[in-house]
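Incident log, structure service

09:12 report received: a user says their structure output differs between two submissions of the same chain.
09:20 pulled the input from the user's history:
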Amino acid sequence: MNQARCKKCGQVFAFAGLPPPVCPACQKARNEQLYILRMLVREFKGLSAADLNRITGVPVNVILQTIQGGEMDYIPVEESPELEAKVQEAMAKARG
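09:34 re-ran on a clean worker, output below:
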C-alpha cells in the first residue's frame, strides 16, 4: 500500500490507489454531509441546490454533482447520535 497526501486536509495516510486520495477522516465527513443532503432532499423535495447550500454549507457544485451522479443512492455512514443531531439541526434550518 502506498502513502498519499489527503487532498482535503493534507494528512499523509495509507492509500490503496483508488481515486480520489482522501483520508478516512475527510471521507467520513464527506459521507456524513452527503447523508444529511439525502435526508433533506427526501424530506423537502422542493429545496434548490442554493437552499441546500445555505442549510448545510456544502458547495452548490458538489450538491449538483452528487445528485446528478447518483451518489445519494448509497452513502456508507455509521449512524450515531452525533450524526442524528446534525440531521435534526439541518431539518430545523430547512423548516425555517
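09:41 both user submissions now match this output. Likely a transient worker issue. Closing.
09:42 reviewer note: The CA atoms of residues 74 and 92 lie 24 Å apart. Residues 24-43 form the longest helix (20 residues).
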